[in-house]
Structures are given as structure tokens and as C-alpha cells.
Inverse folding.
């Protein structure tokens, strides 16, 4: 089994607070991390390799420092890694990202399975996985919570939907996106850390993956951001004062008066 | 990189540094510097009072395609029923279609689908219906193929769909086939009438800011919206519309995936998306066992239990309870947030609730900005008092 795992380096910003006085981000302590959902994708790739044999290749598109997430991937079980980095890739939307990843995957060549996390925590779109599968013209199963069996070019998986689980069978090669229920990612091993340190990670620019310059990065994107703003909520609420008893009493009175409870 | 700061003009004021959603700008020797990883989002350019920042204009590589007309809503079904998100989207779609002076169509796939006329009473001028046993389950390969085929044939300018498990899985595939833009989880949709552009607003960059996104040249402009983000309009039973049964060539199906079975998840007592009242807990609960307090209050009120993201991430409560951008969007009559600070992501999932109560010990917590009633205090005092008073 040749398994490819897509990883993204994201800012660990989900806990960032907004300074309500200045309406700006409190930026202390932001550091880059591997997109948490992608760590489950990698772990599943490594487990499947251990069970069925083969090789795990980690792929990431990002600025030069995204190499860190690939070294981390090697320390936790990836055999090889490729970084897609080129200033031409900057500002890519999901369509351009899927195109770029597909070009790189076609350059890698033989593969049986592509694994992605269900979504990134910065973009939160969950679109790149399905768009990548379509661009590669392979089947896709999203929200996979268990890989049941892989046998003679077929794979059976369990996927999580709103109200339960579906059992799905697909032909290989295929792409799956995984949810965190699928496994518990391992910690890096000492041997892995040593390998990660010495690994040579190739960096592929747009020319090296044979990408059309007009289809990558911002120029290749169908969507553009036209405006960024801090949300204004502005509901005129009432802060209930007094002792905890007073506050609770006031609250319950208001809720009962409003026939809410 | 496609962004430059003119160091002659830059005063090192720091406005751009504060505006960067990624924290990639530093002021070094009184000049702004941008680190690697810039996404060219433009927030700093807007913040700069001196016009010192220039972003290379993106080169549009395809000509603006202005030949498409009409708004489409993908009307999702569950069993033989039309899902509520479908009529919510039609309600919004109707407004947008009226603004553009164009027609609104629904596309519905399923088997023995009941009450298709409600698609018309909620605003559709036309319904394209494929009703076949093959479509009873959400066979995504078939859905993808058929929707892409219909869009290519009828050329709508806008396509909206619910950001459900189904929509989030197959709509991106349709967008990839059509090589067009898709914006996930929009919280507001408006029309720029001059350019016939759909202005698609969503939380972005980890939910810390809102971004308005356009699909400038390619068509259709596609967007997904979470359930309960838009309110349903009042159905007009006298509205006239046309239901077109679309020919469906079963033999042409080349599905590589097969649904073998479905097991319903019964662990969730009350589905939070359907709940009238939700009591939610957050990081302020400190420990997983303290969720019992939330459950107790919920039980007294006959409410569902919700959660913000951190408790779910830490495994205190299953993901099905998570409210927010990466969880569920809810709109109950009453939402009680206990120990939840109110990140933009969480707010995106609950701020349309009719009445919001916030209990938090931090008076500056953003949750108070959306709260109808706020209690600045210790939830470990207030919640037990509430339970006691409600019980008596």
C-alpha cells in the first residue's frame, strides 16, 4: 500500500482572544502547529502501513517553515515527505489548493490511498479533501471513523454522519477524510526523532510539479477575500447585578416572565 | 510574495500588526515586516492609514462569465422528507433572486419525496426533481454527477446548499468538476447588484475574524450554509411554480462507492439542533465531572446539553454536543452558556438563538456581547442555585 497523507501547518489561533477595547487580536503565544485533524490522518496512514505493509508519504503545501510539520510527521511514522512551497502558491483557495496537491500527487505517481483530516482549524472549510479527490478522479469517503478492511482493491470503512454511522465500500485508489474518533495519534519515537532530524525533504515548486502558473495560488483561485472585519455583535443585553442569590432570582424571574421556562 | 510594505512611507505605527489575523507582522526598527505564510488577505492593507502596503492585484486568469442566470438551491432530503435547511435556503434564495431580478429554482434528489410543493411555497419558481430508488440513500457519486450535469445544462449564476454531512462532502466535488469557487459555512449572503456578485460572509482564519468572499469571474458562485443560520419565511400556499421531473439514466451510473448499511446513533438524548432550550458548558467547568452540573440544570429545564469546543477536544463530552463553527449551529428559544468565553467560532453556532443567558466569571468575556441576560459570577455558585430554585 502506498499511502499519501496531506498535512497543513496552521496557526494555533483558536484560543486567541480579541481585545474588546481595541478590537484587535491578543497575539501572545500564537505558534504554528500541525492541523490537529491531520494528525489523525497521519496516524491512520501509519497504522494501515503497519497492518498491510507499504509506505507513508506526507505532503504539505505551505511556506518554507511548513517543513516543520513534515519533520514531525516523520518522527511519528511517515517514511517520506514532500513540501510544496513556492511564492506562486500563496493565497490559494480550496480549488487552487486541490489542483496543486493533485499535481504533486500525480508526480509521486503510484498510490492506493490518500488520507486527509476532516478539515483544517484555520480555514474550517472541509473542502480540500473532496475537491482533491475529484481533481484526481478517485472516489472519496468523508468523515471516516474506522477503516474496517482493505482487500483486493476494495476498502470498507465506517463514516460518521449527523445521526449515526454509515458503512461504505469503495474501490481503491480512494481518498478518505478522517475524524478524530478514528484513533489516538502516537507520540514521536526516539528513532523517529532521529530520522526526522536527518531526513532530506524535497521542496517542489510550481514548475517541478508541472503546474499551470495560472491555476495555483491567488491567480488560480476562484474565490477572493474582499473584506476582513471583526464581528460586531452589539446585542443590548442586561447584566444582572447583586449577590449570586439576587442574580439567580432576577434571571429566573425574567425567564419565567418571558415564558421561556 | 505578492505583498510589499514601502519602508519609506511606513511609520511603524503598528496598526497593521494588530490587524493581521495570523500574527505575521512585526515592527522591527520602526518598520513593519511580514513573515512567511501571508495569505494576502488584505486586512493589514485596510488597517494602514498611510497606504504603505500594496498587494499585487490578483490576475484574473479566466474571463468574467456573465452568461449565467438564476439562483439554485440544492434541496436535501432525509428519507422521503425535505430537510428544514432546504426551505431555510429557499427563503434566503428568494430574497437574493428578487434583488437580482432572476428566478429561483430548487434541485431535489430522492425517492418518493413527499411535499415537494413546499419548495414552491417557500419561494421556488421551478423545481428540478429526480425521484428514483437509486437516490433514496445519499449516494454521493450519483448526486455529484447529476448535480454537475444539471448545472452545466441550465447554467445558474448562484448555487446554494446546506453545509450538512452530505453537502460538505459532495458539493465541493461539484465545484471541482465545474472548476468554480465554493465558500463553506456562510453566515451572511448579500448581492452586489452592480456586478451581480454574491457577497459571501463567513468566520475565517480560525474564527477570529469575519471575511467577505467573492467569486469574481467563474460561474456558478457556490456557497454552503449551516442549518438554522437563515430563518424560514412564511410559506405562501398560493405561490405558483413548476415541478419538472428530470430524466435520469440509471444505466449511466458509474459509482465507485456503495453504502452497505446505516446504524443510528442513539446516545444523544435530545438532538441539540432540534432543542427548544440548550444548556451549554465550556472550559470554565474546569473538570470533566463538572459537566454533571450542566446535565442536572438541563434535566430540570427539559433542555439539551451543549458544549463549546475545548471540552469536546479534551474528551469530556462527545462531539455530537459541540456547538459552533466546527460543531452544530443551533437556534433554540433559550441558550444558557455556562463557563463559555464566546470565541467567534462558538458565537457563529448559537448567536441567532432567541434569548441567550451567559454565566461567566470574566466580565470581559465576548459571550456577554451577545447575551440577553448576563451574570458575571461563579458558575459553581449560580448554577446550583438555579437548579435549587427551579426545583422548588
Amino acid at each position: 500500500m502506498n499511502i499519501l497523507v496531506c498535512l497543513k501547518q496552521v496557526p494555533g489561533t483558536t484560543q486567541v482572544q480579541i481585545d474588546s477595547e481595541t478590537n484587535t487580536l491578543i497575539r501572545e503565544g500564537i505558534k504554528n502547529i500541525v492541523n490537529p485533524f491531520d494528525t489523525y490522518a497521519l496516524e491512520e496512514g501509519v497504522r494501515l502501513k503497519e497492518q498491510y505493509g507499504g509506505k507513508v508519504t506526507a505532503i504539505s503545501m505551505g511556506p518554507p517553515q511548513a517543513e516543520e510539520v513534515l519533520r514531525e510527521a516523520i518522527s511519528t511514522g511517515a517514511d517520506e515527505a514532500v513540501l510544496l512551497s513556492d511564492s506562486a502558491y500563496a493565497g490559494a483557495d480550496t480549488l487552487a489548493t486541490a489542483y496543486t496537491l493533485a499535481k504533486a500527487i500525480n508526480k509521486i505517481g503510484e498510490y492506493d490511498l490518500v488520507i486527509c483530516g476532516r478539515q483544517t482549524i484555520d480555514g474550517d472549510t472541509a473542502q480540500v479533501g473532496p475537491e482533491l479527490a475529484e481533481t484526481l478522479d478517485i472516489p472519496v469517503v468523508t468523515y471516516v471513523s474506522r477503516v474496517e478492511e482493505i482487500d483486493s482493491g476494495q476498502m470498507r470503512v465506517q463514516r460518521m454522519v449527523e445521526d449515526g454511522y454509515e458503512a461504505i465500500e469503495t474501490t481503491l485508489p480512494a481518498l478518505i477524510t478522517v475524524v478524530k474518533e478514528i484513533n489516538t495519534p502516537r507520540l514521536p519515537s526516539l528513532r523517529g526523532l532521529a530520522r526526522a532530524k536527518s531526513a532530506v525533504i524535497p521542496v517542489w515548486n510550481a514548475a517541478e510539479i508541472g503546474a499551470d502558473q495560472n491555476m495555483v495560488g491567488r491567480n488560480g483561485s476562484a474565490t477572493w477575500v474582499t473584506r476582513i472585519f471583526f464581528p460586531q455583535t452589539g446585542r443590548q443585553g442586561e447584566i444582572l447585578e447583586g449577590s449570586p442569590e439576587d442574580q439567580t432570582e432576577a434571571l429566573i424571574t425574567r425567564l419565567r416572565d418571558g415564558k421561556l421556562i | 510574495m505578492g505583498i510589499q510594505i514601502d519602508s519609506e512611507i511606513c511609520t511603524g505605527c503598528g496598526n497593521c500588526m494588530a490587524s493581521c489575523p495570523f500574527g505575521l507582522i512585526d515592527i522591527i526598527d520602526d518598520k513593519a515586516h511580514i513573515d512567511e505564510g501571508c495569505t494576502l488577505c488584505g486586512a493589514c492593507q485596510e488597517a494602514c492609514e498611510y497606504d504603505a502596503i500594496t498587494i499585487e492585484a490578483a490576475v484574473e486568469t479566466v474571463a468574467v462569465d456573465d452568461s449565467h442566470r438564476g439562483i439554485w438551491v440544492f434541496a436535501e432530503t432525509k428519507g422521503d422528507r425535505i430537510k428544514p435547511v432546504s426551505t431555510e435556503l429557499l427563503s434566503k434564495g428568494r430574497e437574493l433572486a428578487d434583488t437580482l431580478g432572476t428566478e429561483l429554482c430548487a434541485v431535489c434528489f430522492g425517492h418518493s419525496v413527499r411535499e415537494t410543493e413546499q419548495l414552491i411555497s417557500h419561494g421556488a419558481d421551478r423545481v428540478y426533481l429526480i425521484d428514483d430508488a437509486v437516490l433514496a440513500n445519499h449516494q454521493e457519486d450519483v448526486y455529484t454527477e447529476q448535480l454537475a450535469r444539471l448545472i452545466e445544462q441550465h447554467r445558474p449564476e448562484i448555487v446554494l446548499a446546506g453545509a450538512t454531512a452530505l453537502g460538505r462532502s459532495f458539493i465541493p466535488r461539484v465545484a471541482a468538476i465545474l472548476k468554480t469557487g465554493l465558500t463553506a459555512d456562510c453566515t451572511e449572503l448579500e448581492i452586489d447588484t452592480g456586478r451581480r456578485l454574491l457577497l459571501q460572509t463567513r468566520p475565517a482564519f480560525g474564527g477570529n475574524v469575519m471575511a467577505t468572499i467573492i467569486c469574481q469571474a467563474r460561474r456558478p458562485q457556490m456557497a454552503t450554509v449551516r442549518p438554522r443560520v437563515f430563518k424560514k419565511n412564511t410559506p405562501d400556499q398560493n405561490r405558483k411554480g413548476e415541478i419538472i421531473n428530470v430524466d435520469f439514466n440509471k444505466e449511466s451510473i458509474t459509482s465507485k462507492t456503495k453504502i452497505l448499511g446505516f446504524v443510528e446513533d442513539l446516545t444523544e438524548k435530545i438532538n441539540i439542533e432540534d432543542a427548544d432550550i440548550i444548556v451549554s458548558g465550556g472550559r470554565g467547568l474546569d473538570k470533566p465531572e463538572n459537566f454533571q452540573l450542566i446535565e442536572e440544570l438541563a434535566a430540570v429545564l427539559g433542555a439539551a446539553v451543549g458544549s463549546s469546543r475545548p471540552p469536546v477536544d479534551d474528551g469530556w463530552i462527545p462531539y455530537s454536543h459541540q456547538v459552533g463553527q466546527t460543531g452544530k449551529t443551533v437556534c433554540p428559544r433559550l441558550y444558557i452558556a455556562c463557563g463559555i468565553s464566546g470565541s467567534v467560532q462558538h458565537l457563529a453556532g448559537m448567536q441567532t438563538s432567541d434569548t441567550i443567558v451567559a454565566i461567566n466569571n470574566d466580565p470581559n468575556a465576548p459571550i456577554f456581547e451577545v447575551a440577553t441576560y448576563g451574570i458575571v459570577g461563579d458558575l459553581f455558585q449560580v448554577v446550583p442555585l438555579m437548579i435549587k430554585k427551579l426545583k422548588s
Remarks:
- Residues 144 and 154 of chain B are 16 Å apart (CA to CA).
- Chain B touches chain A through 110 residues (CB under 8 Å).
- The mean pLDDT of chain B is 91.
